[in-house]
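Lay summary. Proteins are chains of building blocks that fold into shapes, and those shapes determine what they do. In this project we predict the shape from the chain. Here is one chain we studied, written as its sequence of building blocks.
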Amino acid sequence: MKRPALPALLLLAVLALSSCASDKPVVDVYKSASCGCCGGWEAHLRAAGFTVQSHAVDDVSAMRERLGMPEVHASCHTAKVGQYLIEGHVPAADVRRLLDESPDAIGLAAPGMPLGSPGMEFGTSQDYDVLLISRNGEARVFQHHPAL
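And here is the predicted shape, written in a compact code that computers can read:
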């Protein structure tokens, strides 16, 4: 039996590795360098299997506007994953659901900084909603999260 040539085996290995790498969605996070809760959210995403690339910016609000997330839904950081924007402390499960369902939308937002959300696990937790932001800027509840 003839053994496959080494270059063919290397090509197969590279293709296998690149397909595994593409299974981990990349999340680009734009935040203030001094924000600690954003780091907690990034750790939450990494633990859920996302690849996180963190970008410290001088003006998060200007970055949010540049990316296209309406200011009315603002939080302390803005992120981009695939074609979507994620504003604030949105749970990784909601981000996965967004990617799986692929709605025609700008993305998701957890406005403000709800206590009990990923990265904000201190103090008394509160109920909060993650909103789906449509292309026209309208919002509807995507997922309700009760206080823990």
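What the prediction tells us: Helices lie at 6-22, 36-47, 60-67, 92-101.
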